[in-house]
Design a protein that fits this description.
The protein has about 150 residues and is of the alpha+beta class. It has a single domain, classed as ph1033 like domains (ph1033 like fold, Roll). It contains four helices and six strands.
Length: about 150
Amino acid sequence: MQYWLVKSEPDCYSIEDLKREKVGSWTDVRSYQARNNLRAMKKGDLLLFHHSGCAVPAVVGIAKVVKEAYPDPTQFDPKNEGYDEKSTVDNPRWSTVDVSLVEIFKEPLPLAEIKKNSVFTGMELVKQGSRLSVQPVSEKHFNAVVKLRSKQG
């Protein structure tokens, strides 16, 4: 079992969107490092779902991988923002995974709170300038988030 953090702007794809869809594809990732992380994910791996690019960036819940990496169909669609004319069906550049919702936290865990808590020292998310949209998370850091927010109320 591995643990990951995935970031999405809530006005693009929120945890509520995932709840409504039941299974969502993590498409439009156009960073090679993030893509490699998607390709490393295995069915059953757990994900911290992080809302970014909003007033209060925060970890808002947990999802899990239900289908391992396969070619991201958005790379082949000229109408899609993530279209890649150099990517071909025979040699796709970009990958996606399918995920499903595990839990929405009753209260999000703000990035500011994570950065202030010494238990998260060394977490990729708190590193200065970390913008990676798909990143590994240690079991220790994953469990610390769960302990702080899971099953509240």
